[in-house]
Design a protein that fits this description.
The protein is an alpha+beta fold. The chain has 6 helices and 7 strands; from the N terminus they run αααββββαβββαα. A 7-stranded antiparallel β-sheet has the order 4-3-2-1-6-7-5, sandwiched between helices. The longest helix is centred in the first third of the chain and has 22 residues.
């Protein structure tokens, strides 16, 4: 999915993160462990650690995850336009929100989530979705809300959360275009 310079940047970032995790735990951390730590931070860290502005009653972060056999792809978007893609197998794209097109769709995804809060359930556990399923985690203040459906159901527009899924797919598209451009 990621080509050329993008691969080098992602690998370097993940190696640095793995080294930081390793230094803290005194054991060697794989890129998959570093990615798992970043995912957990997006789901558990207080808003003040992830976004500069105080948060209100609207969503400030969305994590959309889809299971693909041996790996899960997690899109993490914040209200400020920050966007990253984590692969549970290790790897991904970090800090893509620095690019205007990615930032715009990341903000749109977080803004769209506000329409679906009533369809989500509070949670304090964060399992990965099964193969063929997509799970949403939406952060509102300190709370984490969640819902899950099959990717097929969402993609065919047959689920109440399909518009949120399509907004997430716009982020995926912009991340793919960014990686193809080599920026």
């Amino acid at each position: 999915m990621i080509k050329g310079v993008g691969i080098v940047v992602v690998v370097l970032v993940l190696l640095v993160l793995a080294a930081r995790v390793s230094a803290r735990s005194k054991t060697s951390a794989s890129p998959a462990e570093a990615v798992a730590a970043l995912r957990l931070m997006a789901l558990e860290a207080p808003p003040s650690k992830l976004v500069a502005k105080p948060v209100g009653e609207e969503p400030w972060a969305v994590v959309m995850e889809t299971g693909y056999g041996n790996a899960v792809a997690s899109i993490v978007c914040l209200v400020d336009g920050s966007a990253s893609l984590y692969l549970s197998s290790g790897g991904g794209v970090i800090g893509a929100g620095d690019h205007e097109a990615v930032s715009a769709v990341a903000k749109r995804l977080v803004g769209t989530a506000g329409r679906f809060v009533k369809m989500l359930t509070p949670t304090s556990t964060f399992p990965l979705p099964a193969d063929g399923h997509t799970r949403f985690y939406v952060r509102v203040r300190e709370k984490v809300l969640t819902a899950e459906a099959t990717e097929k159901e969402l993609g065919e527009g047959n689920h109440g959360l399909s518009p949120l899924f399509f907004a997430g797919q716009e982020v995926v598209t912009q991340l793919r275009l960014l990686s193809e451009s080599g920026k």
